[in-house]
Design goal:
4 helices; 146 residues; six-stranded mixed sheet; 6 strands; single chain; Glutaredoxin; alpha+beta
C-alpha cells in the first residue's frame, strides 16, 4: 500500500511539473527549469552548504535585477535528489546556464562570484540592467561653480 501511495505522489509531481524540474526561483515563484524563452541560470546546491549560503544573497540580488530579462533559479538537491541526476551534479554548488532555447551553454562548479555571473549573462546577450530611474546621476563634484 505504501508503495502505491509513493508512486501516486511521484506521478503527481511529475505530471504537475510537466516532467521538467520544478524549482523555486529566488523571488519565490515556482516553475519549469530551464524557463522557456528566457536565458536561465540554475544554481544547484543546498540550504546548509557553506558556499551555497554565501551565494544566496547574490542570487537574491541578481534575481531582482534581472527579473523579466533572465531567470535566476535555485534548486536544493538535498531536498530534491532527482535534480542532481537530471542536471549531472557531482559537487555543490553547481551553476548551469541555459540559452533561450533551453540549451546548456556553460557550467561552473563551486562558489561563483556576482561579477562572474554577470559576465556570463552578458556573454549570453543579457546585459545588466541599469540603475533604476529616479536616482540622481550627475558628474562628480569638481570644485568649480559657475
Amino acid at each position: 500500500m505504501k508503495k502505491a501511495a509513493s508512486m501516486a505522489a511521484i506521478w503527481a509531481v511529475l505530471l504537475g511539473c510537466g516532467i521538467m524540474a520544478c524549482a523555486e526561483s529566488v523571488n519565490g515563484k515556482q516553475g519549469e527549469v530551464p524557463v522557456k524563452g528566457m536565458v536561465t541560470m540554475v544554481d544547484l546546491g543546498a540550504h546548509k552548504c557553506i558556499p551555497c549560503k554565501m551565494m544566496a544573497p547574490i542570487l537574491e540580488k541578481l534575481g531582482k535585477e534581472y527579473k523579466g530579462k533572465a531567470a535566476i533559479v535555485f534548486i536544493d538537491v538535498r531536498q530534491d535528489r532527482s535534480q542532481a541526476g537530471r542536471f549531472g551534479v557531482r559537487a555543490i554548488p553547481t551553476q548551469v546556464f541555459f540559452d533561450k532555447s533551453g540549451k546548456e551553454v556553460y557550467r561552473h562548479v563551486g562558489f561563483m562570484a556576482e561579477d562572474a555571473i554577470v559576465k556570463q549573462l552578458e556573454k549570453m546577450g543579457v546585459s545588466r540592467p541599469t540603475e533604476k530611474r529616479g536616482k540622481k546621476q550627475g558628474l562628480p563634484f569638481s570644485g568649480f561653480e559657475g
